[in-house]
Specification:
It is built from five helices and no strands.
């Protein structure tokens, strides 16, 4: 399953840092999926915060019906000013939080 944020932002830094951890492949896969899930939920928070109130219900309907995310992305680009920039910045912020948490330097 591909998450919505992956259409615009990548998490190569996070994947690179995870690969440095001395853990089994199955644990690495689980960690990657967990990180993507966290990023997905936090980017949904960003989207819902940025969307005008009268657009939220329509967004959720489109999100539930769109298989490849293109319709959702088009809607968000139209509805949220500088959506792609905001999404990329949010993903980078979350990546840093997750790495700090894994290294024991903070809380996510």
């Amino acid at each position: 399953m591909k998450f919505l944020f992956e259409e615009i932002a990548n998490i190569e830094y996070l994947n690179l840092e995870f690969s440095k951890l001395e853990i089994e492949e199955t644990e690495l896969d689980h960690l990657n999926h967990l990180a993507k899930s966290i990023i997905h939920h936090k980017t949904l928070d960003l989207i819902l915060d940025e969307l005008p109130d009268d657009c939220r219900e329509e967004f959720l309907v489109i999100l539930s019906e769109d298989e490849d995310h293109q319709t959702v992305l088009d809607y968000l680009k139209k509805s949220i000013k500088d959506f792609e920039v905001k999404l990329i910045e949010k993903v980078k912020e979350i990546e840093l939080e997750l790495m700090a948490e894994i290294k024991g330097e903070g809380t996510a």
